[in-house]
From TrEMBL:
InterPro entries referenced in this protein's UniProt entry, alphabetically: Cyt_P450, Cyt_P450_CS, Cyt_P450_E_grp-I, Cyt_P450_sf, Cytochrome_P450_monoxygenase
PANTHER family on file: CYTOCHROME P450, CYTOCHROME P450 12A4, MITOCHONDRIAL-RELATED
Name of this protein: Cytochrome P450
Ligand binding (heme): 482
Lineage, opening ranks: Eukaryota, Fungi, Dikarya, Ascomycota, Pezizomycotina
Length: 536
């Protein structure tokens, strides 16, 4: 196993200090602190000089790829804005660079002796995610970072294991299955608006609502029912053990951010040593979630054997396929619960935001929805909601502007080339959906603006390309693209119809306070506060 330059220098420092100590022992002299400082200073100073001045200019195989001159400074800026001030996410920085740096589809971000590339155009993205996908894998660090929560499900499987997992999970996400889930999603969306209605001040027809918490709860309830036939009842605040564990695992605190950072960089033993309290809490919660999930799986398997599993959910489908072991089922379940819950709630929140600041669009959409859903039968929901041009256009436009997962990433798994530039094994590749979704050359000069009409054709029907030549990158591309796209869209349609048919809303906070933030998914940093008025 090769060692990094930093590790080599650290080893050299240790050897030099050891030899120095021996020499001083012989001459019976003491060990002055200034000598120790000098050994550290000279070695790490040389390393810094090499990384800042020699490597990027003379050694880096990607030195001819355009990119910011001072990638190190950029990395600090991204970190400061993303983590400390929460004013800007990394994807926004990369978008600014992509727009201001002439490039052919990749830019290089150099920092301290390593270079990462950012894909900026659909062609290079297709190369990495589709045509040459076998040369790239998910980054091991990301896997280490998210694995405690996501499990070893589809998101992190590679090669044959992924192919098998995807093939046998896909049937649970087919159109017919999603259609059957509409009435449940509709019911939960109605429950959400009923609960929100109760929170408005008694005796008043309007009130202030922070919508993120309701979006998170309704999407957890929906994925619970769709995924494993279990109602978390998180909307009605009944304390569910599984829901509570999830809330604790996914809520963002400084301590947890540090824990995730250490977990992605160090071994679990080392992390346990440095942060014993948080590690114990996280390990207990993960173990509890796994145990509860496994228990539910066994219950379902028992019911299926007895032939009385009348349930219709993804887990039941996976069990009845007999394709997965109990451990694999638990991993798939954990992955579906997490990836199917956070992303959808975030998308819904951004839809509420855009409709709050574009009152004309809100009115137009309400009229469309109210006309369409009057007297609708549950079985008609898929065809009616999927045919509404403005509802779908608004949804697609918001998903374009605020891709809930703004960046995907890969690492080169072998030495390879991209656009003729050598890419050494282990090179990190960032794929920001944000760049492509807002590229003026693909969407026109109004790429940053909210214009749902771009998704509506002249004949009045909505399309899936938004006037762009490649569509949006929100759900990824190729064989690893999102399996839950149809599921999520069905859910968003139901949730938005429920909101529009019960409330009118405006923003109840300064617009400058609505800023995207987050490490994996992006939600408003300060929540989304709305002033809501019940429709009579
Ligand atoms: C707005 C909502 C959603 C967005 C924006 C989204 C986005 C994505 C993206 C970009 C990927 C590709 C990641 C990569 O290639 O690195 C992905 C993969 C995935 N998504 Fe989603 N997703 C959403 C909702 C869902 C839902 C509702 C589910 C499940 C119920 C789901 C399950 C998955 C799974 C299992 C994968 C891994 C697929 C594979 O590797 O084969 N997602 N998603």
């Amino acid at each position: 196993m090769g060692i990094s330059l930093f590790q080599a220098v650290t080893l050299a420092v240790a050897v030099e200090l050891f030899l120095l100590g021996k020499a001083l022992q012989k001459s019976d002299r003491s060990y002055p602190a200034s000598w120790i400082a000098s050994v550290f200073g000279i070695n790490y100073g040389l390393l810094l000089f090499y990384n800042l001045a020699i490597y990027p200019v003379f050694v880096d195989p990607l030195r001819n790829v355009p990119g910011p001159r001072y990638g190190n400074v950029l990395a600090l800026k991204v970190w400061y804005n993303h983590v400390v001030t929460k004013r800007k996410i990394g994807a926004q920085f990369y978008t600014e660079i992509a727009r201001t740096t002439p490039n052919e589809g990749i830019i290089a971000i150099r920092s301290f002796g390593s270079t990462m590339i950012v894909l900026t155009q659909p062609e290079t993205i297709t190369t990495v995610l589709v045509n040459e996908r076998l040369s790239y894998t998910k980054p091991p660090q990301l896997r280490k970072f998210l694995r405690p929560i996501l499990g070893d499900g589809l998101v992190f499987l590679e090669g044959e294991e992924h192919r098998f997992g995807r093939k046998h999970t896909q049937p649970a996400f087919n159109k017919a299955q999603i259609n059957d889930l509409y009435p449940m999603m509709w019911g939960k969306a109605q429950e959400m608006v009923a609960v929100i209605g109760k929170t408005l001040e008694p005796g008043y027809e309007s009130g202030k609502v922070e919508i993120v918490r309701w979006a998170t709860r309704v999407s957890l309830d929906i994925i619970g029912l769709a995924g494993l036939g279990h109602d978390f009842h998180s909307l009605t605040d009944v304390k569910d053990k599984l829901a509570g564990d999830y809330e604790e695992l996914t809520e963002t605190t400084w301590g947890k951010l540090l824990w995730f950072l250490l977990m992605s960089r160090l071994s679990p033993t080392m992390t346990r040593f440095l942060l014993p309290g948080i590690t114990k809490t996280m390990e207990d919660r993960v173990a509890s979630v796994r145990n509860l999930s496994t228990k539910m799986i066994y219950e379902k398997m028992g019911a299926a054997k007895d032939g009385d599993d009348g349930q219709f959910d993804i887990l039941s489908l996976l069990i009845s396929s007999n394709d997965f072991s109990e451990a694999q089922l638990t991993d798939h379940l954990l992955t579906l619960l997490v990836s199917g819950h956070e992303t959808t709630s975030v998308a819904f929140v951004w839809m509420c935001y855009r409709l709050a600041i574009h009152q004309d669009a809100q009115k137009r959409l309400r009229t469309e929805v109210l006309n369409a859903i009057a007297g609708v039968e549950p079985s008609q929901l898929p065809s009616i909601l999927e045919g509404l041009p403005f509802l779908n256009a608004v949804m697609l436009e918001v998903l374009r502007l605020y891709p809930p997962l703004p960046m995907q990433s890969r690492v080169a798994d072998v030495d390879t080339f991209i656009l003729g530039h050598p890419l050494a094994k282990g090179t990190r590749v960032l794929i920001p959906a944000w760049i492509v979704n807002r590229a003026p050359e693909l969407w026109g000069p109004d790429a940053d603006e909210f214009r749902p009409e771009r998704w509506i054709d002249e004949d009045g029907r909505h399309n899936n390309m938004g006037g762009g030549s490649i569509g949006s990158m929100t759900f990824g591309r190729g064989p690893r693209g999102c399996i839950g796209e149809g599921f999520t869209k069905a859910e968003l349609r139901c949730m938005m119809c429920a909101m529009l048919s019960h409330f009118e809303w405006t923003l109840n906070m300064p617009i400058s306070e609505v800023v995207p933030s987050g490490s994996v998914t992006i939600r408003p940093a300060n929540g989304l506060h709305l002033k809501m008025k019940r429709l009579v």
